[in-house]
């Protein structure tokens, strides 16, 4: 029984990290871009519509969560998903979210208060 509780605690921690990474639109765009192909910070910054400094902070977060890895290539660094299964999980999650509904009809004050209704 104890072992199962520890396993559940570890799993919930992993899901919380994944949820935190996805909670920011810029990080979500980066993960979706990397799902398609590895990329470089300058390309990712342009795609996400943020400064390179801002992107650097987001990439640090994603590295810290264990979702992306930096691969040195001479003087450049290429970023890619830490595991191909992550790309598959993102695709599956998008499929589920699309079935549930593309938008959220929650009252605005629900989001402002940091609560979720759906």
The helix count comes to 6
User: What class do helices, strands and sheet pairing give?
Assistant: mainly alpha
Number of strands: 2
Low-confidence stretches: 110-118
CATH architecture label name of the domain at 2-83: Orthogonal Bundle
The top level CATH class name of the domain at 2-83: Mainly Alpha
Helical coverage, percent range: 55-70%
> Could you tell me the strand content as a percent range?
5-15%
Specify Rg, calculated over alpha carbons.
Answer: 16 Å
Explain how this protein is built.
- The protein is mainly alpha-helical.
- It has a domain at 2-83: Winged helix-like DNA-binding domain superfamily/Winged helix DNA-binding domain (Arc Repressor Mutant, subunit A, Orthogonal Bundle).
- The chain has six helices and two strands; from the N terminus they run H-H-H-H-E-E-H-H.
- The chain has helices at 2-22, 25-36, 41-48, 52-64, 84-100, 108-112; strands at residues 68-73, 76-81.
- A two-stranded antiparallel ribbon has the order 1-2.
- Strand 1 (68-73) and strand 2 (76-81) form a beta hairpin.
- Helix 2 crosses helix 5 and helix 3 (41-48) packs across helix 4.
- It is globular and about 45 Å long.
- Residues 110-118 have low confidence and may be disordered.
- GO terms for molecular function: cadmium ion sensor activity; DNA binding; DNA-binding transcription factor activity; lead ion binding.
- This is Winged helix-turn-helix transcriptional regulator.
- Residues 9-101 form the HTH arsR-type domain.
């Amino acid at each position: 029984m104890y072992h199962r509780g520890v396993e559940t605690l570890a799993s919930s921690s992993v899901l919380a990290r994944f949820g935190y990474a996805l909670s920011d639109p810029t990080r979500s765009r980066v993960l979706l871009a990397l799902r398609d192909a590895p990329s470089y910070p300058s390309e990712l910054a342009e795609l996400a519509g943020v400064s390179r400094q801002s992107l650097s902070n987001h990439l640090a977060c994603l590295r810290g969560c264990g979702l992306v890895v930096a691969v040195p290539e001479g003087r450049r660094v290429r970023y890619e998903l830490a595991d191909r299964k992550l790309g598959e999980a993102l695709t599956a999650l998008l499929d589920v979210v699309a079935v549930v509904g593309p938008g959220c009809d929650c009252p605005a004050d629900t989001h402002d208060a940091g609560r979720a209704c759906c």
